[in-house]
Amino acid sequence: MPPERVHAQRCARYLALGLLALIASCAKAELEAADSGAQHIVRLDLSPEPGSPKPPNEILSRGRFDVGPDNRDSWKVKGADPELVIQSKERWGGPWMGLGFSEHKGRVAIPVAIPAGSVNRAAVQVMCKSKVDIAVALTRDGKNVVTSAFLRHSGTGLPGVVFVDIPGVLAHSEPFDGVCVLMDRLKHDSVFLGVELLSAPLHGFLPTDPSRPDAVGMENEFRTSIALSKDVPMRAEVSATPGAVLRFGMARPEAVRRTSERPRIKVRVMDPEQDPPVELAKGAFILPRGKAARVWADAELPLPLTTPGRVQVIFSLHSEAEGASLVALSSPRVERRWAGPKTVVLVTSDTHRADHVGGSSRNVGVETPFLDRLADKGVMFEDAYSSTNITNPSHASLMTALSPRDTRMVDNNTVLAEHAVTLAERYQEAGYLTLAAISAGHMNHRQSGLSQGFDRLWVPSGKADVDSRISIEHLDEWLDEANGLPLFVWLHVFDAHAPYVVPDDLRWRYYDESKDPYAESFELPEGARVPWDAAVRDVDFVTSQYMSEVTYLDTQLEGFLSHPRFQNAVIAITGDHGESFGNHGLYFVHAGLYPETLGVPLILTWPGSPMGVNITRGVNHLDLGRTLLDVSGLVDVEFPGQNLMRWLDNVERQGEARFAISSHAHSASIEKDGWFLVLALRHSGKPARTAHQVELYRLADDPGCLVDLVDEEMERARYLRRKLMDWLAAADERGLSQATGLQNREELAQLAALGYAESLGEDTGAGAWYEEDPKSTWCQRFR
Predict the structure, then answer these.
(1) Domain membership flag for residue 82
(2) pLDDT tens-place string over residues 704-715
(3) pLDDT tens digit string along 666-719?
(4) Structural domain includes residue 414
(5) Is residue 695 part of a domain?
(6) How far apart, in Å, are the Cα atoms of 382 and each of 362, 602, 616?
(7) Exposed e or buried b per residue across 84-93, where buried means at least 16 C-beta atoms within 10 angstroms of its C-beta
C-alpha cells in the first residue's frame, strides 16, 4: 500500500478517535478534578510469602565434549578443516585443541544419549577474532528436533564460552540421541573447542527476584516480568482508590511450558486493616493453551472499594503437574484511569544524518514537511552529536545518559546490565505505562538489554529489520488500550539504514529519471560498491535513495504522531548515529568517528515550549533523557545529564567539550570550540588508521573533516589530545555491560562453579580505554 494511502487511513481513524476522546473527556472532567492528586498507576512491590522455599539454582553438567584426536572420527562435521588446530602457547589461552573451518557455515554433530527433559542449556567453547553466530540443537535420528536461537559472539582471539538456552525441551517426552552445534558467519580464524550440556532449573529461565524484574519475551513481545512458581506465592500491599482495577499479564515461555499442563493463577485481594484480614475480591485466571499459549495474556480484577485505602494482593500459582511449575507475571499494577494523562514520546531514527532535515540550515535538499512543522512548534538543535556511531551502544547511552566510556558497550553484541538505571524505569517509577516498538531485530533484549523498564516492547524476529509502518501498527494497537493512563512511548525506526530500498513512488524523488544510474559511463569511486545493488554505478543515485527513505519516514511519523493521544504530548525526535557518503573512503556505512557519523537530528516540543527556535550550538544527545524528565514535570527524579534548555537563554558560554567512542573502540574523539580531534585507540581497517594516530580538523572551514591540520596546529592538537586522554582515563571501571548469552547473577555464580569463572565477568570492557606506547612515533610526537 502506498505510504500516502496508509497515512490517510491512519489520520481518518485518528480523527474519529479524537471525537470519541473529546466526548469521553467531557464525561470524565468531574472525575479528573476530584482525582488529580492521585497516581494513575501504582506498581505492586511483590515479595514471597513468609516461609516460602528459596528457588533452586544448581546447574548440573550432563556431559562435556572437547575436541580431540580420539573423537574427531566419531563426530559428523561439516565445513571444518581436516587437520586439528593445536595451540600450546599460554598467551593465546593454550593449551587447547579445536576444529578450524574453511567454509562460511559449520556443523558439529555429536552422538550422545540425552534423556528427555535432562538438558536445556549448552556451553559452547569457541576461539575467534570476529563475530560468529552460534546455535545448539538436540537431535533424533539425524534430525534437529529442538533448536535454540542463534546468538552472536564477538571473539577476542582467545577461547571464550557462549551459553545457549535450548527452549522447548519440555514439550518432548522421547529421549534425544545427539547434539548438534551450528555456527554461521565463520571466518578462517574461527575454531570450535567443545560443548558442555547443562541442566538448569526452570527458575533460571525467568527473573526470580521480585526486586529485580526483567524483560521476558513471548514471540516478538517483551514485558517486564517476574517468575511466579506454585511453591512460592507472592504478595504486596498497595494504595488504591474507588474505581481502581488490578491488571497484569501472564505467560508461559517455551523454556518452562509443558504442553500437558494447565496452570492457573489465583488472586486474592484483602483488606489488611481488618483483623483478621477480610477478602475483598478474588479471581482465577487459566493460562492459555495451543497457539494462544505463545503470546501474552492479559488479566484484570476490579477492586470493589468505596473509599481510598490500602489493599493486600496475593498471587498464587496452581498446577496438578509434578515438579516445578512457573509462569511469567508481567507488570502487576493497580490502575485508575481518567482524562488528560501525560504523554511522552521518544522517536529514534536509525542512521539519520543531521543534515537530512528540511528545516535545518544544513539541509542537503531533502523534504521532511512533518518534521519541519514539528520543529516550528518547538526547538530544533542543528548541531547535536551522538556518543558513538553504532546502534545498540548509542541507544544504551541515550537510555542511561551515560557515555559508552562508562557503559562499556561498543558493539551490537554486548548487553546492558540488569542493574543499569534506564529512562524507562524512571518513568515507570513515576506512574507511567511504558511502551516501545523497535524496528531492528538485533536490538532484542537478549542481545541488547534495551527492554529494561518497558511494560511492553515489540521487536522483529531474529536479526530482521522492518519498515517503520509495521512497528507503528503495534504501537497504535497498544495506544488504544492505554486510554486514561500516563504514557512513555519509544518508537525506533530503521528506514534510513542501509539497504536504501524505497517505495516506487519515491524512487525518483531526488534523482533525474531520465538518467540511468546503472550506465557504464559513470565511474564508480573505489570502495563505493553497493552490496544490495551491485550493478549501480552512480553514487548520487544511492544518496538520492537515502533521501527518499528519510522522506518516506517523515510521512510515517506524521501518521503516527497524528494520534489524538499525542496532541499535547512531550515529543522528542533524534537519531542514534549518522552515515558516511564517501568521506575518508567510507561509503554507505557508519564506520569512522566523524561529524557525519556522529551528527543526528534533535527536535523537541512540549506543551508550552518556545516555538520555532533553532539552536546552532553544539549539544550532546546524552542530555535528552534529563531534558525529557524535566519538561515532563519530573525535575526531582534522579537521572544523569543536564537540561538542554539551558541553551535557550542566549548567555555566552565557553564551548562544552563533546566526546565519543567509536564502534569496537577503534577510536575516540573530542569536539571543542569548533575543533574536532580523533585519536586512534587501536589499529583499524575502515578507515585505515594506525594505533595512536591523531587527526585534527577545523569544522568551520572543513565540516567533512578532509584536511588534517595536526601538523599545522600541533599545540592545539596536544591540548585536545590530553583532554581526550584525561576523559578516557576517568571512565567508570565497573561498566554497565555483560556479554551476550550470560544469565542472571545467581546463575553466573553457579556457572562459575562449573569452571567458567574466567568467562563470566559482568564488565566486558574492563581495563583502560587507552594507553600510550613509548615506542609509537605518534606518541613520541606529543611528548
Answers:
(1) yes
(2) 999 999 999 999
(3) 999 999 999 999 999 999 888 889 999 999 999 999 999 999 999 999 999 999
(4) yes
(5) no
(6) 8, 7, 5
(7) ebebeeeeeb
